[in-house]
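writing this on my phone so excuse typos. first protein, seq and then structure
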Amino acid sequence: MPERKRRLKSIKSELLIKSREAMLSAVQIFNNPNINFKSENFIILSNIAWMYLLHAYYREKSIEYRYFKKIKTRRRFDRTKRGAYKYWELERCLTDKLSPIDKVTSSNLKFLIGLRHEIEHQMTDRIDEYLSARFQSCCLNYNLYIKKLFGEQFAIDKHLSISLQFSTINEEQTKKLKEFTDLPKNIATYINDFDENLSDELYNDIRFSYRVLYVPKSANRKGQADKVIEFIPANSPEAKGLNKEYVLIKEKERKKFLPKHIKELMIEKGFSKFSIHKNTLLWKENDAKDPKKNFGVNVEDQWYWYDNWVKFVENYCIENKEQLN
């Protein structure tokens, strides 16, 4: 093997080793009960894991992933103060037209990149519970892509098992879990703003956020309860019943409002004449229940409005304040 090819293969192998170790470390730290900064560590290490994974891919495909300026026909590479090359960060890797990563997986990673900037100087431990579904997707997506791009031998799922825990989740906890009341305002705002710009199709894709419904189960015979997680066919009677519950749990992730809530919010803002009837007339005039507009969602025959519709209503009230005060 020529020396250049041997060197390129060696660098690619080193990048993959670093990538896998970074992702394994991210998961191990997140599952460690003695670690407080779980989310912060997971985001940083998973970011590094994905970046090295894409560096290895670009190197294998002979795609230049160093920053440079083109002066006539020559490249002048950007360097640090001490002369090292400046390589693409993860976000630049994802936005390149030759990136092998699909749109949904990229959205999951871009969410984590933005979140890293927001939590950099914040102290919060509740974010672990809020966003674990998105962290889970990040892990599954990584394992999928490292196998897809480099082969089954690089898979990391064989090194990890299900994380055990001492706590159980009760109904009261699930109601409070997604209210965002105990997160710093900038983090809660970032999450809501990011989600508002997603289509329903992308938001509900498991590659963006992997949600699992846990149902305590009483076994009827020996051996039946030996597995913590049991998978059942999607078209089975059991699954059809669970899917309704799943929708309810899933939809709690996004803040929603009933018409009476919107009326109360507008009255609090000084628009005393705003009513539920006015909200109805407004959404009909603007065809606001069209799914493409992403103003709300129907959950078991009950319509809920999102934050962006509340903002739309508020803007309407401001423009017509003389009639509504």
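second protein below, same order as before
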Amino acid sequence: MRFRRLVGLLILIGGIFFVSSSDFQPMMKQAVSTVDQHLTQIIQNFKTPRLADKYETDTKTKESSQDSSSSGQVKATPLESNVQGRTLKRTYYYRFASGTPDRVKQVFEQAVKAYNKTGIVKLIAGSGSQKQNQIVFSTYNSATKTQANVIELGVGGPEIIQQTGWDAYTANHARAKLNIHYAQAVSLSVAMHELGHAMGLDHSAERSSVMYPVDQGVTNLSRADLAGLKKIYQ
């Protein structure tokens, strides 16, 4: 019995001596640091991504899908079927149909300025000849909805006039209209969209494009939109 007590006492004294030694504290600090690093890694592995991180990832994915991995070229906005494979002259003459409201003229004039700033096309007020590109701006009033049950804010598109022979020419006699049945149709974003159709751009699946089929309020031509125009006019 006394022997057991003596052994226990010796173990206790040895433990106290070990804890109080100069080597013990560095060892404990190293152990605590190692455990802390492991816990931090475990927490990071199970951390839920922030919305900002997800948005950034989605944006990078979208941008990479628009660019060619090999050449870095932008994937162009699709073109209307009747202008595909054609090269049109860059100059257009535009006019407004009789009775077009001033507020509609204003947003179409703003859209014209935006397209002119690209340097790809040149829109001039006036009436062109049969052989020249023309656009007529106008309005209509209808409660029409698309097949997807979306209200129709406007219509627009190219009409290719082509003559062969010794006096051959190809011209686009386009139209662009805003549906004044809906107040939101009289806006720059809708005017940009319908003018884009008139110039030969088709609908785009990219929300950043003015040619997205549902109005997103976009008033700046995207890189893909510009690439689409260049296919027709350069």
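Residues 42-71 have pLDDT under 50 and may be disordered. thats all i got for now
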